[in-house]
């Protein structure tokens, strides 16, 4: 099949479409179409590594939805985290969680270098890199999870859950006004979700079957949501 021979091109196209969807002139429907197309291409690029010949249609859908959620979250999280490079360091935590649960890890060195370089560049220049660059890096981390899972459902669950921290930051930034956040709220929320992602990766993500992974992700997500809600309530007092 042609897509198995052109996985690298599909990955590049997926990352490019996701990045383009962030900067396309303000036409929400077209942006969403571009984001979905990018999400499909990115997921498709890992077809031979994780999905070909396997009954993992649920993971395909989850991967596409995760990429679309990242497209929505990247601009919000990038603007909301006040320190230079903060979004990139949170993303590096996500990459660490992916590394902690996927059986194939050779690609993670390149991923870590790309993400760390983004954080260092922002810290040194004291300027935010373009948000499409952050989103492309997020897509690269997602690809590393899909590729590294090698078709193992438990690793797919752990790897995709690892991408939740910046999405959680974006959600909190949306529901809590800038005046009510305080200086540490978003950092604390990011820390809660990165820690939870690492725990899920090292429990359900390395389990021997899918069920413990799903349970770990469900419990971890519920606990992280509860902690985040508590932090939001406290910030408003």
How would you characterize this protein structure?
This protein has one domain. It is 79% helix and 0% strand. It is built from 13 helices and no strands. The protein has helices at 2-5, 7-23, 28-44, 47-51, 57-80, 86-101, 108-125, 131-148, 153-161, 164-175, 178-181, 185-202, 210-235. The chain is globular and about 50 Å long. It starts with a helix and ends with a helix.
Secondary structure layout plus pairing:
Layout: H1 2-5, H2 7-23, H3 28-44, H4 47-51, H5 57-80, H6 86-101, H7 108-125, H8 131-148, H9 153-161, H10 164-175, H11 178-181, H12 185-202, H13 210-235
Helix pairs in contact: 2-3, 2-5, 2-8, 3-5, 5-8, 5-9, 5-10, 6-7, 6-8, 6-9, 6-12, 7-8, 8-9, 9-12, 9-13, 10-12, 12-13
- Mean pLDDT, all residues: 93
How many helical elements? 13
What's the story with the biggest beta sheet? none
Low-confidence sequence ranges: none
Helix-strand pattern = HHHHHHHHHHHHH
Mass-distribution shape? globular
How many structural domains are formed by the residues? 1
């Amino acid at each position: 099949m042609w897509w198995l021979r052109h996985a690298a091109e599909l990955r590049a196209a997926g990352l490019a479409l996701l990045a383009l969807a962030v900067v396309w002139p303000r036409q929400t429907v077209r942006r969403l179409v571009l984001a979905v197309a990018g999400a499909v291409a990115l997921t498709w690029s890992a077809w031979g590594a994780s999905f070909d010949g396997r009954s993992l249609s649920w993971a395909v859908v989850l991967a596409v939805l995760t990429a679309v959620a990242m497209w929505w979250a990247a601009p919000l999280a990038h603007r909301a985290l006040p320190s230079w490079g903060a979004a990139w360091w949170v993303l590096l935590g996500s990459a660490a969680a992916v590394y902690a649960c996927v059986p194939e890890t050779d690609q993670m060195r390149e991923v870590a270098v790309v993400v760390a370089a983004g954080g260092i560049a922002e810290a040194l220049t004291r300027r935010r890199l373009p948000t499409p660059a952050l989103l492309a890096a997020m897509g690269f981390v997602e690809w590393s999870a899909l590729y590294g899972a090698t078709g193992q459902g438990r690793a797919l669950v752990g790897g995709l859950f690892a991408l939740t921290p910046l999405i959680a930051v974006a959600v909190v930034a949306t529901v809590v006004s800038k005046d009510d956040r305080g200086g540490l709220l978003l950092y604390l929320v990011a820390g809660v979700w990165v820690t939870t992602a690492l725990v899920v990766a090292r429990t359900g993500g390395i389990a021997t079957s899918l069920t413990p992974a799903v349970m770990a992700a469900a419990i971890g997500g519920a606990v992280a949501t509860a902690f985040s809600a508590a932090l939001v309530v406290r910030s408003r007092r």
